[in-house]
User: Fold these one by one.
Assistant:
Number 1:
Amino acid sequence: MLLEVRQLCAFYGPSQALHGLDFTLAEGGIVTLLGANGAGKTTTLRAISGMVHTTGDIRFEGQSIRGRAIEDIVRFGIAHVPQGRGTFVRQTVEENLQIGAMTRRDHAAIAADLERVYGYFPRLRERRHQQAGTLSGGEQQMLAVARALMLRPKLMLLDEPSFGLAPLVVQELFSILRTLNSEEKVSMLVVEQNASLALDLADTAYLIETGHLVMTGAAHDLRNDENVRRAYLGY
């Protein structure tokens, strides 16, 4: 397993947000976390990235990463694309992408990866000298994913990638994510409010309610579960 999470609890001050989560993600796989707003999905991504206080164990490629500094977790090859995109609005598109490679020292490979990323996101190439803050919402989301790719990640943590985007942009973005997984073998842990999208993308799904893991299985099995269909798919 690429990622193993055991008895994960997370805390914001005295308040406990996660209660003993157990899940795994295989190398090359896509896992989605389903649940209502406030269920603990975003907190789970933050816990893996070292952004909140946790107990339990988080192992990446067999090595414990719980309690490590955020920058150390990034160096392991874990890229976090947060909700709200998090672009550096006053920097150009290309400067944002170069920031994504800050932890790397292989300058020739960085230049090659820049061209590779532009191949996936041709609109970003067209706007490479444009300030990121002037991009559309969809372009900013693509920039956030592209910047994460500049890390050459083994695992991408994606928090609500479709949020606020037009349906055609969402379709394009998720098509790119599928290609990155199949061609680049980038593993993904996806939090997505649109459960239908998430289940189409993922191999495995976990359902979280009030910080507790209540259901797990193959994505197509959860799609066919009557309770999931009624609560999260609307039919």
Note: Residues 167-184 form the longest helix (18 residues).
Number 2:
Amino acid sequence: MSGPLSHIRVLDLSRVLAGPWASQNLADLGAEVIKIERPGVGDDSRAFGPPWVKDASGRDTKDSAYFTSANRGKKSITLNISVPEGRAIARELAGRSDVLLENYKYGDLARYGLGYDELKTLNPKLVYCSVTGFGQTGPYRERPGYDFMIQGMGGMMSVTGEPDGSPGGGPQRAGVPIADIITGMYASIAICAALANRERTGRGQHLDLALLDSQIALLAYQNTNYFSTGEPPKRIGNLHPNIVPYQPFRTRDGDVILACGNDNLFRKFCEVAGCSELIADPRFATNGKRVENRAELTRLLQEVFMKRKTSEWVDLLEAAGVPNGPINNIAQVFAEPQVKARGVRVDLANASGVKVPLVASPMRFSETPVEYRLAPPALGQHTDEVLRGLGKSDAEIGRLRETGVT
């Protein structure tokens, strides 16, 4: 059974993470994704190692593990768009595509005749998605943008990390490039929405996705907390600004996260944990009161948690229906029975026959399931196939390669 986007062709001129993350989502959903890469070099992230993908003999290849995280399901072609013949091929592919995804700096592709205004004349149905650091408008639009700097500028690092003055205090970036990833996710949604609109109107459009916009949107209630108080939220480590108790506690042999999202769950926790006296304490009777008296409640609960091991707490709280969980490292994540049962790890054989371990899409469909058809491609693996689809002869393909066009 085909995926929900099996009728869609995507021309992917993006590289590194935000754009490729979006096009990988589209590939998972069944779209044919043709990834254009620079001859001889490819996507910058192919070189983001170590660690490296291994070959059949267990030796390092030139492709990084980083690259594999965002490029499954795609066909790679090498194409030099800085030369007229390369641009002509890119335009021909754009004319036959439903979506074009790019993350060049503002105005760069227009210089090559590959901007939206040029291509919409060629293909009025084209959904053209631009991913940049700061967007297509505003005084910063020509600036380059990278995830780390956007996490700083966009406020993420102001609310992530331990408070100033405490051990390890100071701003922290997220452990993954969250600005890139969330922009890729918003781009995926926007592309699907534009395709749905095209079904109704017959027209494509230009989508303008910015890392800074996406990072700010991701702050969610931290933004509205600021709007409500006029005070910028501060870093509070692993605590939650609006819910208590919603944090990790040290146990006799490790840590466990307690997530009491409402008053009923707090009561259930206190009953099973042997501290039911806290239920009647007016300082902790409601979530609002618990937020006001966070420090004292945390002190009291920490004493309670030190009485048992992590595994004992997990079993006890699970049986009582109180949300909780251990703090796993990534090896422990993939050892979780639930993760195994859900098939979160998938292994796809690449062009060399080596199985590459990857993480499954979290999107699950009852009628049009996600298909994992192609492992992350070798550089230029599908160049000949794609060019033949444009009607190029083997002789033409050979000449293009010899002259550095592909």
Note: The first strand starts at residue 9 and ends at 13.
